[in-house]
Specification:
The structure holds 2 protein chains of 2 kinds.
Chain A lengths: L9 E3 L5 E2 L9 E7 L5 E2 L5 E2 L4 E2 L2 E5 L3 E10 L10 E8 L4 E6 L14 E11 L5 E9 L7
Chain B lengths: L3 E12 L6 H16 L8 E5 L3 H5 L5 H8 L7 E4 L5 H14 L5 E9 L6 H9 L14 H16 L3 H16 L12 H5 L3 E3 L2 E2 L9 E10 H4 L9 E4 L2 E3 L20 H12 L8 E3 L5 H10 L8 H7 L15 H4 L4 H16 L18 E8 L10 E8 L1
Parallel strand pairs in B: 2-3, 2-4, 10-11
Antiparallel strand pairs in B: 1-7, 4-7, 5-6, 8-12, 9-12, 11-12
Helix pairs in contact in B: 1-3, 4-14, 7-11, 11-12
Classes of the chains: A mainly beta, B alpha/beta.
Chain lengths: 149, 404
C-alpha cells in the first residue's frame, strides 16, 4: 500500500474573471463585457460602460484569448509568493482591451519578447499562497506558429 | 476665500527604524510641526491622517486616525483617515486646507505616516504596496508598481530620446541632494556611472534609480487661514495658491498612446492646467519643484508635465544643470523619493515640508536661491498615487502650488 501523493489544493485567484474548463472540448477564456451602445469591449466584466458612461448596456462575452504585447518588463523581485524573475506585461487583446498578465513559456529575459508579438492565454498557477494553495489565474504565452507546438 | 497658509511643518527622519511604530513616528512629526507653528496644540481642531498599509501589515485595519492622534497626546477633534497610495499625504493636505477654508475649523493638521520596513522580508513590503493597485485584475496576478512605471518609461525612451544614462543622472542628482539632507533615508552621494552599473531591478532601471519599498517615516503640516495665522506670527508664510486633486478616468485603448505615458503622470497635465490657472502662474514661474520620482524616469516626465521645458527637452534640461540645487528651477531638493525616501503615506507631506523650509530659507546646506539671492517664492509639488493599468483610471493625482 502506498500513501496518496500529496497534492496541493488549487483555487482561482479571483472569481468571475475567467472560465476554467470543466471537461474535454471546453475552453478556458477570460470573461468580459461588450457595450451594446458604443461597442466598447471591457475586461473585467462590468455592468457599466465607462467609455460612454452608461449603465445596463453591457452584455457578457468570452474573449478569444489572443492578443499582442504592448509593453513588457522583466522584474527580479515581486510580492510574497511570486517566483522571480518573471515577465510582467500589458497586452492588447484582439477585441481591444489592454490587460495585465505575466508572460510564461519563454525565458524571463528582456530579449525573449518584443512589443507587438502575438500571445495566447493559458491558465496556470500564479503563485502558491500562505496556506500552500495553488492560485490559478491567466498567463499568456508567445503564440507558436510552428507545427511542434 | 481667505488665503490658506502653512503655519508649521514637521518630519521624522525617513529610513529604517525597527524599534519604532507608526505612533512613535507620527508623534515626532506632529510635535515638531506644533513647535514650528508656535501654537498651543489644543488650538488644533481637526486632523487628517494619511496611512496606507498598517491594516495589511499589522491587522490594524481601522481607527488609525484616532490611534495616531491620541498617541500624540491630542484629542477632542474630528480625526479622519485618508489613503490612496503615494498620494495619501497630499490628499490629507488637500482635505486639511479645505477644512480651514470652510471657516468651520480654525486650525487643521495633516499627518502622513508609514511603516514599511520589515527586517528580512522585502517581499512583504512589496505585497503591501501592491494593495494600492486594483487587486483582482492586476496585483493579484503579479503586477508591481516598479514594473508598471518601468514599462511606461521604456516606451518613453523611444518617444523622447531618453537613455539609461539620463535615468542615472536624475538619480545621481537626487542622491547628491539627499546627501545634504539629515532627514533623508539615503545620505550617500553616488556617481551616475556607478548607478548605471548597479544591480538591475527592471531593465534598464537599476536599484538606485528606484525608490525603496522598505522605509519608515512621518511628516506633518499645520494649516490655517492667513487671518488666523496673524494671531500667532508676523512672519510671511507660504500660502496655498492652488491644490487641484483629480482621479483618473477611463481611457479607450486606442487613445492610451496620447497620454503622457506613465501611469503616475497621466492625470497630472489636467491637474497642472488647473493649478496654473488658479495660481496665475506658468511653468516658467516655478522656482522649485518636488516631483514624484518613484523611479527616476518620472522626474524627466515631470519636467514636461510641469512645463519646465518643452516636450522632448527633458534630457537637455537635466544635462544643463537647471534642475540641480544651484539651477534656475531645482527639482527634488531634499533628494526626492529616491534619496529622501518614500514611506508611501508620508511622502506628500514630506514634499510640503521641503517646499516650506526652502521657501522660508531654512533648508541648511541644500538651501536654494533660484534668482541668486532669495529663497524660492513659487513652489510646485506633484504627487500621484494608486496604480493598475493604462485604461483603468485607478490612479489619482494632486498638484499643489505654494507662493510666498
Amino acid at each position: 500500500m502506498t500513501l496518496p501523493q500529496q497534492v496541493r489544493a488549487r483555487k482561482p485567484v479571483a472569481e468571475g474573471l475567467f472560465h476554467i474548463p470543466t471537461g474535454p472540448g471546453d475552453r478556458a477564456y477570460l470573461i468580459g463585457s461588450r457595450c451594446t451602445k458604443c461597442n466598447e469591449y471591457l475586461f473585467p466584466r462590468s455592468p457599466v460602460c465607462p467609455a460612454c458612461v452608461s449603465v445596463g448596456t453591457t452584455e457578457d462575452i468570452e474573449f478569444s484569448g489572443r492578443g499582442k504585447i504592448w509593453r513588457f518588463i522583466v522584474t527580479d523581485r515581486g510580492p510574497t509568493g511570486f517566483p522571480v524573475p518573471y515577465i510582467q506585461a500589458w497586452l492588447r487583446l484582439d477585441e481591444g482591451p489592454i490587460i495585465y498578465s505575466m508572460i510564461r513559456g519563454c525565458p524571463p529575459t528582456s530579449d525573449a519578447l518584443s512589443p507587438g508579438q502575438e500571445v495566447e492565454m493559458k491558465l496556470d498557477t500564479i503563485r502558491v499562497d500562505e496556506n500552500d494553495t495553488e492560485l490559478i489565474g491567466w498567463t499568456f504565452v508567445p503564440l507558436r506558429t510552428d507545427s511542434h507546438g | 476665500m481667505d488665503d490658506i497658509v502653512v503655519l508649521g511643518v514637521g518630519m521624522h527622519p525617513f529610513g529604517q527604524f525597527p524599534d519604532k511604530d507608526i505612533r512613535d513616528l507620527s508623534r515626532f512629526a506632529i510635535w515638531e510641526a506644533i513647535d514650528d507653528a508656535g501654537i498651543d496644540p489644543r488650538a488644533i481642531n481637526i486632523a487628517y491622517v494619511a496611512n496606507c498599509y498598517e491594516g495589511f501589515l499589522t491587522g490594524q485595519d481601522d481607527a488609525r486616525a484616532p490611534i495616531v492622534i491620541r498617541n500624540a497626546g491630542l484629542g477632542g477633534m474630528p480625526m479622519i483617515q485618508v489613503s490612496s497610495g503615494s498620494a495619501a499625504g497630499s490628499i490629507a493636505f488637500h482635505e486639511a486646507a479645505l477644512a480651514v477654508s470652510s471657516g468651520i475649523y480654525d486650525i487643521a493638521i495633516a499627518v502622513g505616516v508609514e511603516k514599511l520596513y520589515i527586517p528580512g522580508d522585502p517581499a512583504r513590503s512589496i505585497a503591501a504596496i501592491a494593495t494600492s493597485g486594483e487587486k483582482n485584475v492586476g496585483t493579484d496576478m503579479g503586477l508591481t508598481w516598479i514594473a508598471e512605471l518601468a514599462m511606461g518609461a521604456c516606451d518613453l525612451m523611444n518617444r523622447w530620446g531618453w537613455t539609461a544614462e539620463h535615468f542615472a543622472k536624475v538619480a545621481a542628482k537626487n542622491r547628491y541632494n539627499g546627501s545634504l539632507n539629515p532627514k533623508a533615508e539615503i545620505q550617500e552621494a553616488i556617481s551616475w556611472e556607478k548607478i548605471l552599473n548597479s544591480r538591475v531591478v527592471a531593465y534598464p532601471f537599476t536599484r538606485p534609480m528606484c525608490a525603496s519599498a522598505a522605509v519608515d517615516g512621518a511628516a506633518a503640516a499645520i494649516l490655517c487661514t492667513a487671518k488666523t495665522a496673524r494671531k500667532f506670527t508676523t512672519r510671511s508664510l507660504p500660502h496655498v495658491a492652488a491644490m487641484p486633486f483629480k482621479g483618473g478616468s477611463y481611457t479607450r485603448p486606442q487613445d492610451v498612446d496620447k497620454e503622457p505615458g506613465m501611469l503616475s503622470m497621466n492625470v497630472a497635465p489636467r491637474v497642472f492646467a488647473d493649478a496654473f490657472a488658479q495660481a496665475g502662474v506658468g511653468g516658467k514661474d516655478i522656482e522649485i519643484a518636488q516631483v514624484h520620482d518613484a523611479i527616476s524616469a518620472e522626474e524627466l516626465l515631470g519636467y514636461q508635465v510641469l512645463k519646465l521645458c518643452a516636450p522632448g527637452d527633458e534630457a537637455a534640461l537635466l544635462e544643463s544643470g537647471a534642475t540641480s540645487l544651484t539651477g534656475r528651477v531645482p527639482v527634488n531638493t531634499d533628494g526626492g523619493l529616491l534619496s529622501r525616501g518614500h514611506p508611501i503615506g508620508a511622502t506628500g507631506l514630506a514634499q510640503i515640508y521641503e517646499s516650506v523650509i526652502q521657501m522660508e530659507g531654512r533648508a541648511g546646506a541644500r538651501q536654494t536661491r533660484p534668482d541668486g539671492t532669495n529663497p524660492p517664492k513659487v513652489a510646485a509639488i506633484q504627487n500621484a498615487g494608486a496604480f493598475g493599468g493604462p485604461s483603468g483610471g485607478v490612479a489619482v493625482s494632486v498638484g499643489i502650488i505654494l507662493k510666498r
